[in-house]
Design a protein that fits this description.
The chain is built from no helices and eleven strands. The protein is mainly beta. It has one domain. Strands 3, 4, 9 and 10 form a four-stranded antiparallel sheet that branches. It starts with 7 loop residues before the first strand and ends in a 7-residue tail after the last strand.
C-alpha cells in the first residue's frame, strides 16, 4: 500500500478503554477470530448497521495518505487518511491489534480514492499494561452517541520539500453511531495543499 518507504517510524498509540457498551445495548460481537469492521476482518457488532467512509483526492500530483504523528491523527493503526474519535476527541483503534505497532514511514502515492467501512467495532487497549507488549485484540462495540471522522491527505507535489514535512490537509465531520439506516456513507473530497490549509 505504501511506496518509497524511506524510514521506520514507531507510532506508539494508547487508547483508554471506552465503556464496553454495544451498539444495541449489549456487548455482543459476532464470533470470529478477528472481530472488526468490514476492512478489519470477519466479525461485527450486532444490530448497529455500518458506515462507509469514502475519500476522493483532488490532485494530479502524488499525495501522502499517512505520516508521522503528530500532525497526522490515527485510527487505523499507523497514522493514515482516516481517524474516528469520540466527541471528546479520544481516538478509537478500529483495526485489530494496532494500538502499539512499528509503522513504516509513508511515502508519496498516486492519488486514488480510499474507503473504509465501519460496523462499530473498535479495539480498546488493555488497562493493565502499556507499551509494545500490549495489543488491542479484544473487540468491543462503540456506544451509541456522537463521533468525529477526520479525513486527511498530505501534499507531495514537486515543491513539497523534505519527506512529509507539510501538515496534512484535513476535514472533519460529526456523525451519529449507530446510523439511522442499516448502511450509510460519509463522503469527502480533499485537494491537499503545501501548507495543509
Amino acid at each position: 500500500m505504501r511506496s518509497s518507504l524511506r524510514t521506520i517510524a514507531v507510532c506508539a498509540f494508547y487508547v483508554t478503554a471506552l465503556a464496553a457498551t454495544a451498539c444495541d445495548g449489549s456487548t455482543d460481537v459476532a464470533s470470529s477470530p478477528d472481530g472488526g469492521g468490514t476492512d478489519g476482518g470477519g466479525g461485527a457488532c450486532t444490530g448497529g448497521g455500518s458506515i462507509a467512509f469514502d475519500l476522493s483526492v483532488d490532485s494530479t500530483d502524488p499525495v501522502y495518505l499517512g505520516g508521522s504523528q503528530p500532525p497526522w491523527p490515527t485510527s487505523l493503526g499507523c497514522p493514515e487518511w482516516l481517524t474516528i474519535t469520540t466527541a471528546a476527541g479520544q481516538p478509537l483503534v478500529v483495526s485489530r491489534g494496532d494500538c502499539f505497532i512499528g509503522c513504516v514511514a509513508a511515502g508519496p502515492q498516486t492519488a486514488a480514492p480510499q474507503s473504509f467501512t465501519w460496523d462499530g467495532t473498535y479495539y480498546p487497549a488493555p488497562t493493565n499494561c502499556s507499551g509494545p507488549s500490549c495489543s488491542c485484540t479484544a473487540p468491543a462495540c462503540a456506544p451509541a452517541g456522537n463521533y468525529v471522522a477526520t479525513f486527511c491527505v498530505g501534499y507531495a507535489g514537486p515543491d513539497a520539500g523534505t519527506f512529509a514535512s507539510a501538515p496534512p490537509t484535513c476535514q472533519q465531520v460529526t456523525f451519529t453511531w449507530p446510523p439511522s439506516s442499516a448502511t450509510s456513507s460519509i463522503d469527502k473530497t480533499i485537494a491537499p495543499t503545501p501548507d495543509g490549509g
